[in-house]
Each structure stands twice: as structure tokens, then as C-alpha cells.
Automatic annotation (TrEMBL):
Organism from which the protein derives: Rhabdobacter roseus
Keyword match Oxidoreductase: yes
UniProt family annotation: Belongs to the aldehyde dehydrogenase family.
Active site feature: 261
EC number, as in UniProt: 1.2.1.3
Protein name per its UniProtKB record: aldehyde dehydrogenase (NAD(+))
Length: 508
């Protein structure tokens, strides 16, 4: 790890603020980063003070004045070069993601691949920021619409995807002509610093204005500064529903824009015709991947009564084969939770399941002994619960899967939709009528609905996000770029008269 940190230019005490080409230590308290893998301190940074924050925002505002005038294809070319840099540092950055956050090495590398993929997407997008032309009702008039950048975009990211979600926002915002101020999770500051180091050479060699890519490390106060700052027209926030509501309220109070990616409580429906050879691996990965700490993790499994016992038996066998340990060891399936606070949440949920009359098909436990010294390792578990149990309404960021029985597809869909969250959903079926009903307007109420694949593992080509308490935001692919821009309608009169719309007559 020492060699990787050195290559990524991460020192034992690293600067916690950056405007792309310059970095400095914040005047706030010291923030230590510890790995949940082995409990070891990795490095530390100084959090930002309010004075530090204002300095960064001012630099970002100055950069925006120049950056928005750079032609979009040229901005895309700079993002293309960033993608090449991330290709060159994929192994090192992916390993650091795994070590600082705790996800498996394959998932860490996959997260860096998401950065590379969104760079590729953004390059093409830089030549496709299309508007529309409209026919005017007035003679000798032409109408069209165009899109302009917003300005400073604030990005608040969560620990579970410490670099990918930043890139979804930043790469699109940059080709749109915006500048970005990133507040990473205080639990994973080093991966954010590493990203800034990776792209620094690109920014400098292309003489990109200092302040186009800014980083501010810190806790809740930094997020509150961004949310309340009228100089930041858009705040993109990823995290808990509680956090998202606070951000939305603050941004809405000043009539700014918020892009929210919040909690998920995702379900898979397993129909009688399901191909279980495909379904079981998808369920297990969805439930235990990233130790259940994805917003798209599978939380609820709704299984038809006719195959319920078989599915339960297969899952119990699959869980019995899971290997839990150091995520840098590619032979392990499941790594640690992010910290001991997450372990306490896991234990509290287990207690609530037991109190509500739930039955554990696969027992929960906190792991200790050699290899588990950090105190952050838990065993994935499966609990049979009633669909009406209060605990099912909540999202626990841990590998806990609820097993629920259903009789009719309409009942299964109602169970799936009967929670406050609405991010991801899936059905396993070989019946075309069932799959089409699930995808119809009376089917899944989630932003993502899949057939014969699990709830996690979205590609960057599609818009990512959910409904209800998930926040309604959309990031990444499709036309998600529009949230980073403002729409302008233009009408041009190239005639010699001034006819008014709706036939209004006005003479002076």
C-alpha cells in the first residue's frame, strides 16, 4: 500500500483542499482516515475552515468565467485526456478505493472503470448538447432553444462509491461548461485527493483555469455551506434520505437546484418460471456485494410460494460458501463494513428483526479473531419476515436480506412498491406477460426496473436515480446532462414588421 500511496502522491499528512493545480492544508481540525480492512491509519488531512471554503468558491467562480467560453468539444478533449490518465492509474486508484472503503478489489477496479466509461460518454456528449428549433406562429420569425452552463456545481459524495459518483457529475458538468466543487465523504477523503492528483497534469498541460476542479474535505458543515450558498446554483448530493431532505430544504429555500441520490430499499421478485441458475448468483451479489453498502443493494427478496422453499435452500447453500475477509485478496467475496458505527447499526437491526418475530435462515454474527482485528467484519444474513414488519420499511447499510413469500404477481408488486424508497427493482421470470406488467405503469414504481438481472450494477449509458424518498435525481447517461445546464428559448424576428403572439394588436 505504501508504494501505491506514493505513486498517487498521498503523503502521511496530505493537503485537504485543492483548486486543481494548487493544494493546501485546511485550517480546520485534523481528519484521520483509517482502513476498515485492518484498522490501520492510512493518512490524515486538515478539514476546511469557512475561510478556506470561501477561497475555493471564489476561485471556482473566477474559473467559470473563462471555462464557459471554451468550446464544448475542446472541453470534451480535456475530459478524454482525463480518461486516459485514469486508465493509467486504474490499478493504483482501484486498490486505494478497496483499502480505504472496504469493497472488494474487483469492485474497486470496477469503480475506476466507471470513471473511464463516463469520460468516454462525456467526450461524445460534448458534441451533442442539442437544442430544438420550433416553427413560429408569426411570419418572418424563427424560434429555437439552446442550453447554457449553470456555473458552480457542488458535489457531495458518499463513502460507498467514493470516486465514481463524483465522476458521473464532474465529467458531464465539465463538458457542459460548469466548474465543480467536490466535498467527498469524511470517511474516504484520500481517494478524492488521489483523483485530483491523477488529473492535475491534464489540467496544467491544457492550461485549464485554476478552479475548474476543486476539492474541499470536511464534515457536515462543509455540506451545509454548499447547500446554503447562493453562489452554487446546483448541489448534487448522494447519501441518506435524512441528509438529502436537509440539502433539498436549504437549496430550495434559496430557489437553487438540487440533484438527490438518496436511500434505496430494493427488491427482487422471483416468479415461478424464473431461471434459478441465473437468479441465485444475482441475488447473492446484490445482497452481499460491497458488504450490502450499495444504494442499489438487494434488501428484499419476494419469492412465489411455489418455489419459496427451493430458493431458500439454494440461498442458504450459497451463503454457506461465502468467504469473508481482506477485500484485497481476490479469493474473498465479502469485505468489511465501513466502520464500527456501521457494525452497531447491523446489530441493532438484527435485534429489531428478532423482536418483530423474524426468523434467521442464515444467522448473523460479528466476526472477530485473526484477520478481523478492525472490528468491521460481519456475516451476511437472511431473515424471513412479514412484509408488514416495520423494519422492512427501512434501509440498513449492511448485508441483511429479507425473505418474503407471495401468491400473485399483483401482490408481489404491491409489496415491492410498499416502501418509502424507490431506487432499483428487478424481477426474474421467463413469462413475457409478467415481465411486461412489471415494467408497465402499474408495475415497479422505481427509477430502475430490471428483468432477469439484479438490482445493482448499473451501466453509465442509462440515467441513474430513483423516485419517492430516493430523491428523484438522475445522473450519468441518457439526457441527465440537462440538469447541469439552463434552457433558453430564443425568438428572432428577421422581418420588417412586429406581429405579436396570439394575434394581439398594439399600436402607438
Amino acid at each position: 500500500m505504501e508504494a501505491i500511496l506514493k505513486k498517487l502522491n498521498i503523503q502521511s499528512q496530505s493537503p485537504g483542499l485543492s483548486t486543481g493545480q494548487q493544494s493546501w492544508e485546511g485550517r480546520g481540525p485534523l481528519l484521520e482516515s483509517y482502513s476498515p480492512v485492518d484498522g490501520q491509519r492510512i493518512a490524515s488531512v486538515h478539514e476546511a475552515s469557512r475561510e478556506d471554503y470561501d477561497r475555493v468558491i471564489q476561485k471556482a467562480q473566477e474559473a467559470y468565467q473563462a471555462w464557459r467560453q471554451v468550446p464544448a468539444p475542446k472541453r470534451g478533449e480535456i475530459v478524454r485526456q482525463m480518461g486516459e490518465r485514469f486508465r493509467a492509474y486504474k490499478t493504483e486508484l482501484g486498490t486505494l478505493v478497496s483499502y480505504e472503503m472496504g469493497k472488494s478489489l474487483q469492485e474497486g477496479l470496477g469503480e475506476v472503470q466507471e470513471i473511464i466509461d463516463i469520460c468516454d460518454f462525456a467526450v461524445g456528449l460534448s458534441r451533442q448538447l442539442y437544442g430544438l428549433t420550433m416553427h413560429s406562429e408569426r411570419p418572418s420569425h424563427r424560434m429555437y432553444e439552446q442550453w447554457h452552463p449553470l456555473g458552480v456545481v457542488g458535489i457531495i459524495s458518499a463513502f460507498n462509491f467514493p470516486v465514481a459518483v463524483w465522476s458521473w457529475n464532474a465529467m458531464l458538468a465539465w463538458v457542459c461548461g460548469d466548474v465543480c466543487v467536490w466535498k467527498p465523504s469524511e470517511k474516504t477523503p484520500l481517494t478524492a485527493l488521489a483523483c485530483q492528483q491523477v488529473i492535475r497534469e491534464v489540467l496544467e498541460s491544457n492550461e485549464v483555469p485554476e478552479g475548474v476542479s476543486c476539492l474541499i474535505t470536511g464534515g457536515r458543515s462543509v455540506g451545509e455551506w454548499l447547500a446554503n450558498d447562493v453562489r452554487v446554483p446546483l448541489v448534487s448530493a448522494t447519501g441518506s434520505t435524512r441528509m438529502g431532505k436537509a440539502v433539498a430544504e436549504a437549496v430550495g429555500r434559496r430557489l437553487g437546484r438540487s440533484l438527490l441520490e438518496l436511500g434505496g430499499n430494493n427488491a427482487i421478485i422471483v416468479a415461478p418460471s424464473a431461471d434459478l441458475e441465473v437468479a441465485i448468483p444475482a441475488i447473492v451479489f446484490g445482497a452481499v456485494g460491497t458488504a450490502g453498502q450499495r444504494c442499489t443493494s438487494t434488501r428484499r427478496l419476494i419469492v412465489h410460494a411455489s418455489i419459496y422453499d427451493e430458493v431458500k435452500e439454494r440461498l442458504s447453500k450459497a451463503y454457506g460458501q461465502l468467504r469473508i475477509g481482506d477485500p484485497l485478496d481476490e479469493h474473498q467475496h465479502v469485505g468489511p463494513l465501513i466502520d464500527t458505527t456501521a457494525v452497531e447499526s447491523y446489530q441493532a437491526t438484527v435485534a429489531e428483526i428478532e423482536q418483530s418475530g423474524g426468523y434467521f435462515v442464515v444467522a448473523p454474527r460479528v466476526l472477530d479473531g485473526p484477520g478481523y482485528e478492525s472490528g468491521c467484519y460481519v456475516a451476511p444474513c437472511i431473515a424471513e419476515v412479514a412484509p408488514t414488519a416495520a423494519i422492512v420499511q427501512h434501509e440498513t447499510f449492511a448485508p441483511i436480506l429479507y425473505l418474503i413469500r407471495y401468491e400473485t404477481l399483483e401482490e408481489a408488486i404491491a409489496i415491492q412498491n410498499g416502501v418509502p424508497q424507490g431506487l432499483s427493482s428487478a424481477i426474474f421470470t421467463l413469462n413475457v406477460r409478467e415481465s411486461e406488467l412489471f415494467l408497465s405503469q402499474v408495475g415497479s414504481d422505481c427509477g430502475i426496473a430490471n428483468v432477469n438481472i439484479g438490482t445493482s450494477g448499473a451501466e453509465i449509458g442509462g440515467a441513474f436515480g430513483g423516485e419517492k424518498e430516493t430523491g428523484g435525481g438522475r445522473e450519468s447517461g441518457s439526457d441527465a446532462w440537462k440538469v447541469y445546464m439552463r434552457r433558453q428559448t430564443n425568438t428572432i424576428n428577421y422581418g420588417t414588421a412586429l406581429p405579436l403572439a396570439q394575434g394581439i394588436k398594439f399600436e402607438v
